[in-house]
Amino acid sequence: xxxxxxxxxxMSCAGLRIAANDRYTGDFQLGTGKPVLLIGNSWDPVMPxxxxxxxxxxxxxxxxxxxxxxxx
Length: 72
Known about the structure:
alpha+beta; two-stranded parallel sheet
């Protein structure tokens, strides 16, 4: 029930036509002062593990920790 409710709330906002005042249009290939650790869940339906790897590609020196469990 929680997942169904969360999806309905998020999707109801998708149709709104609101212009962002502070939209970032710069480069998404970033550098950080410290290494970044991203934790991905193997069976997460909301944030797939592939997304953790995609984000990691944008941070030099970052790593992905694969957490092999189900759920979010």
